[in-house]
Amino acid sequence: PASDDMPAAGAQALDSTWQGVLPCADCDGIQTRLRLVADDQGRRYELQETYLAREGGEVFESQGAWAEETAVLDDQPTVVYRLDGNGASRWFSLQPDGALEMLDGLEQPTADGLAHRLQRM
After folding, report:
1. pLDDT digits (tens, 9 = 90+) for 43-99
2. SS3 call for 11
3. Which of 42, 43, 105, 120 is deepest in the core (most CB within 10 A)?
4. Contact residues for 34 (Cβ-Cβ < 8 A; gap 6+)
5. Are 110 and 102 in contact, with CB atoms under 8 Å apart?
6. Which helix H or strand E contains 60, and what residues bound it?
7. Residue whose C-alpha is closest to residue 106's, from 90, 85, 121
8. Phi-psi region of 27 (alpha: psi -120 to 50; beta: other; left: phi over 0)
9. Sign of the CA dihedral 41, 86, 113, 53?
10. What is the reported pTM?
11. What does the pLDDT read at residue 10?
12. Which residues are CB-neighbours of 75 under 8 A, at least 6 positions away?
């Protein structure tokens, strides 16, 4: 049964995967794959990041809990997913086309938002 605190917008992201290449300051990009799951065991995410480099990529995997929140971005209420892993939280906003856009450390869109987008698989 769905809980009252789970908005309809979040229902489409209960077992979904997004993928893309995010910018990297000292490599060719970060191949990123994010899976959000919500089931009877709770809400959890799996994040795999491969740093693209000529010598082969270094792979980092993390997992943890995620939460769905509503934030006001560009004067519009927006569904935002917060990943709570080891260290600081990471934030992604759900876009109208189903993509996720990574937000900065202040939970705001980056200046080059399209470069920080993961497409839904």
Report:
1. 999 999 999 987 777 899 999 999 999 988 888 899 999 998 766 789 999 999 999
2. helix
3. 43
4. 17, 18, 19, 45, 46, 47, 83, 92, 100, 118
5. yes
6. strand 58-73
7. 90
8. beta
9. negative
10. 0.81
11. 42
12. none
